[in-house]
Structure formats: C-alpha cells, structure tokens
Design brief:
Blueprint: E1 8-9, E2 15-17, E3 23-26, H1 27-31, E4 37-47, E5 50-64, E6 67-77, E7 88-90, E8 98-102, E9 107-111, E10 123-131, E11 134-141, E12 144-150, E13 158-159, H2 161-166, E14 170-171, E15 177-180, E16 186-199, E17 202-211, H3 215-219, E18 227-230, H4 232-235, E19 239-243, E20 248-252, E21 272-275
Parallel strand pairs: 2-7, 3-6, 12-18
Antiparallel strand pairs: 1-9, 4-5, 4-21, 5-6, 8-9, 8-19, 10-11, 10-20, 11-12, 11-16, 13-18, 14-16, 15-16, 16-17, 19-20
Length: 276
C-alpha cells in the first residue's frame, strides 16, 4: 500500500483515473517491459463513443511509484488511440481510505485516516454514491438537480441532452466540434450556455460546456436522467480528496474564472464487461 507521506506522479488526465474500473496497458509499452502476459479472453471498455473490445490479459506485475501489484487483470490496447493516455490505472487498485488528487503539483496520494487539511483553502465536502467503483455526486445546473461522475480521465466536462433540456440551456452551434470517441468514430459536440452550476458550496456562473448524445449515459443508467461527466477542465481547479470510507468528496477551492470550459475532450472510460 502507498503509505501516508508517499506519492506517485499524476500527470493531468493520465495514469490514474477515477472514472475507470479496469487497467488499460498499451501493447507497445508491454513489448519494452519484462512483464509476463496470460490471456484471459476479452473485455469491453465503455467510453463516450460506446464500447470497444480489447484483449484481456493477466499481467505478472505492475508498478506505480512505490506501489507494486501482482497478477493484474488489464485490457491491452493493440494500438495507441488518439486522445487517450498510454496506460490507465483505476483508483480502485489502490488501498487506503483517501485518494488525494493534488493536480497543482501533479501528484496523487493514497492514505488512511482523514483527508488532510490544507492551509488557506476552503473546503467543500459532498457525500457521494458509489457505483461499481465510480463516484457520483449531486449537482444542480440552472436549479435542476442531477448527478455528476467524477472522472479524472475525461479532459473536458460535458452533460447529457436530458440535463440541457430540463435546465433550458441555450445552444451555441457556431463553435460545434467533432470529437473522437473510444470507438474511433467522430461525434458532434455542441456547446450550450448555462447560467450556473452548483455542487456543495461551490458555484460557477455563466459557462459553456458541450452536450453529447452518448451511449455512456444509458449504460450507466442515466439515459433520461440529468447527468454530467465532471472532467479535468473543472476538477483540476481544485484539490480533490475522495474519502472512500466515509463516502465523501472534498473539493479544496482554487480560483475559478468565468471562462468557456468547452475544449476537446479525451476518452472517458467508465466500466467494463467481460466475455470469456
């Protein structure tokens, strides 16, 4: 276990992801390592473009910082996908009560006990609901209640069409973009204008984020229910502490400027289903 005081590097949007439930390892990376592989069949990985099937293997050993795992189940990507990091480790692989993302210092700490208090910061604590190792919090957009998946593997924040419709958001089609999902197809991302977003004591006013028609929402059971994927464009403005023992997320505040949050998203991996 990574003990109190030890840390591993956490480049933004890479390596350790709260929105993943299976490890993904790049084939080219494995070819340069001494890790032994044992085939286990296939697994499908869910992203914004739907499911994509990868070979599933058991890896003899995986290292991250001071931490070592033996006999790890992992999906092996046969080619590098544009917009995706080479290797992904889900936070569920780490033991400890607190998963502490310090994005400003590009560090991740996993430890037991209580979340660390950081001087001169404002704490915003929110209870979360766990679902298959994923973390969901309650949010409100334009006064409409919904849920947000905390996903450090998503480069950008986005919502489903149900959230946009119920919150009466206004579309801005002039800057619509095509993005590439995990199925390697392109998907139209249209930004919408929202008045405000509230989660706990935090509030963001007058912002734009994309609305996506993605099977990801339906697969997670939120097809017709307002839902957001809270990505790194928003999360990186805080220090985020996930308290798995008490099922609570603490956002340590950083200054949030009024700016367009719309950017090119990366692939958000949510969960897997296995076929032998």
């Amino acid at each position: 276990m990574i003990g109190d005081g030890e840390a591993i590097p956490h480049p933004q949007g890479e390596t350790v992801q709260s929105g993943a439930t299976v490890a993904l390892i790049d084939q080219a990376f494995l070819e340069t390592s001494e890790t032994r592989l044992a085939p286990l069949g296939e697994t499908s990985v869910l992203g914004i473009g739907g499911r994509r099937v990868y070979p599933l293997h058991r890896l003899s050993q995986v290292r991250a910082g001071a931490h070592i795992w033996e006999d790890v189940r992992a999906a092996v990507t046969p080619e590098r996908i544009e917009l995706a990091p080479y290797n992904v480790l889900p936070t569920s692989m780490f033991e400890g009560d607190i998963v502490d993302f310090d994005f400003a210092k590009r560090r991740l700490r996993v430890y037991s006990g209580n979340p660390r208090r950081i001087a001169n910061t404002k704490r915003n604590r929110i209870d979360f609901v766990g679902q298959d190792g994923l973390v969901f919090i309650t949010i409100r957009i334009n006064g409409v209640r919904g849920h947000a998946l905390i996903d450090t593997g998503a480069e950008v924040t986005f919502v489903n069409r149900s959230f946009a419709r119920r919150s009466r958001a206004k579309m801005n089609p002039e800057i619509a973009k095509l993005i590439e999902g995990s199925d390697l197809d392109q998907h139209l991302a249209v930004p919408y204008k929202f008045r405000n977003l509230r989660f706990g004591s935090a509030e963001i006013k007058r912002f734009e984020i994309p609305v996506l028609d993605s099977t990801l929402f339906h697969e997670l059971g939120y097809g017709d229910t307002p839902m957001m994927v809270m990505g790194m464009d928003l999360l990186s403005r805080f220090r985020v502490q996930i308290d798995r023992k008490r099922q609570r997320v603490t956002f340590l505040s950083r200054e949030i400027e009024r700016e367009d949050l719309f950017a090119r998203p990366s692939i958000s991996r949510a969960r897997e289903s296995i076929s032998p």
